Amino acid sequence: MDTIIEPFRIKSVEPIRLTTRPEREALIEEAHYNLFNLDGDDVMIDLLTDSGTAAMSAAQWGGLMQGDESYAGSSSYYRFEAAVRDLMPFEHIIPTHQGRAAERILMGIVADEDAIIPNNTHFDTTRANIEATGAEAVDLVIEEGHDPANMHPFKGNMDVDRLDALLQEKAHRIPLVMCTITNNSGGGQPVSLANLKAIKAVCEAHDVPLFLDACRFAENAYFIKMREEEYADWSVPDIVREMFSHADGMTMSAKKDALVNIGGWLALNDDAWAEAARNQLILTEGFPTYGGLAGRDLEAIAQGLKEIVREDYLAYRMASTRYLGQALTDLGVPVVRPIGGHAVYIDAKALLPHIPPLQYPGQALAVALYETGGIRGCEIGSVMFGRQPDGSEEPAAMELVRLAIPRRVYTQSHIDYVIECFEDIVERTRELPGYAITHEPEQLRHFTAHFAPIDA
Ligand SMILES: *Cc1c(COP(=O)(O)O)cnc(C)c1O
């Protein structure tokens, strides 16, 4: 059989409120054309993020009832620790309330004004937590990673020559090297095991530890199985173990590839760093056997880690993202390729060439998707990155709209509906207006800015 089915049945459902197009036009106007201002109830298909939006399994919900809420020494912590260590064999496993808390604790220990932290591409919270210490965050993804049309199978790879050159010159200022799997900011693109090994070899030569920002480790492992010949016959858990065997630590948002709605961890081998991390943890998160989480959350993570590495799940996951990306490509909608693991990124600049970058083609497409079908995506372009520290504006490198796919939440007919909305939009791209910003805060303006359509 060729059809890849959702490898689950639905036991519990959440109704979607169906809205009409005139209703949506009124709602988005009231929201000042900013999709972050919409009530979740007014969204039919929410593709804003894949973070914390997964559907948990019956076994995870069952696990919640078994959470041990002991303040110290909770048995749920030990089950969580064993589940993490089964895949990621680190000495110290420190739970946190989400990924950025792990980043803040780690950077608080290792970084200062003199420090430089390289990565393939820093995720925005990672970069912000590095910069908050005064340190510098450097992105070293390979050249192909910047080209939306390039079909390189591992566009998340790090440029090892540039890493080596940086370490040759400044290793004394580099407390650790990071690598993000998959590379979220670069379109959910994977990193190969060959690249991880090469990064580790360079790090070892300069005696600098390697940490993985591992939010989508299972999707990355599945890409390795599919695209790196040497590992085609390996099981996914074995590929995961091999990936982490080349690292000295990791930060994790369990809201991605641990199939839960909240959680994270920091794991590492260095005893002194771990002791400092636990001291920080007690200050702002909680006792080391619960971090920022309840015992029941730790149970849900432990079970989620068993489910996320199942090949039937990963085959379905990749197929469903690819299905949307391929359908859009067939419609002539330009998307970032190859299709990444967790999202489809649409090149709004190429789709709407009549809208100049500073009239925000990504925002124009995001608003049109909402009006047309009640679909919520996320602009990643000049709205998000265009404002300069001095208040002036520069166009971003790309004008993208991200459609992130929550894990196990939508069925194929939901996605077929999204595709149908695009069929409608591609017929009338020239009619879509650009937008002006009528109100904006000084920082992170995309969350709260107000917009108004520009009359053509
Ligand atoms: C989501 C994410 C983070 C931050 O995790 P939160 O749980 O949202 O705090 C860090 N890095 C990457 C690559 C992410 O996708």
Automatic annotation (TrEMBL):
Gene3D superfamilies: Aspartate Aminotransferase, domain 1, Type I PLP-dependent aspartate aminotransferase-like (Major domain). Its cofactor is pyridoxal 5'-phosphate. Its EC number is 4.1.99.1. Residues 46-419 form the Aromatic amino acid beta-eliminating lyase/threonine aldolase domain. InterPro entries: ArAA_b-elim_lyase/Thr_aldolase (IPR001597), Beta-eliminating_lyase (IPR011166), PyrdxlP-dep_Trfase (IPR015424), PyrdxlP-dep_Trfase_major (IPR015421), PyrdxlP-dep_Trfase_small (IPR015422), TNase (IPR013440). The keyword Lyase applies. CDD domains: Tnase_like (cd00617). Pathway: Amino-acid degradation; L-tryptophan degradation via pyruvate pathway; indole and pyruvate from L-tryptophan: step 1/1. The modification N6-(pyridoxal phosphate)lysine is found at residue 256. One of its GO terms (molecular function) is tryptophanase activity. Transmembrane segments: none annotated. NCBIfam families: PRK13238.1. PANTHER family: BETA-ELIMINATING LYASE-LIKE PROTEIN-RELATED, TRYPTOPHANASE. Belongs to the beta-eliminating lyase family. This is Tryptophanase. It comes from Longimonas halophila. The gene is tnaA.
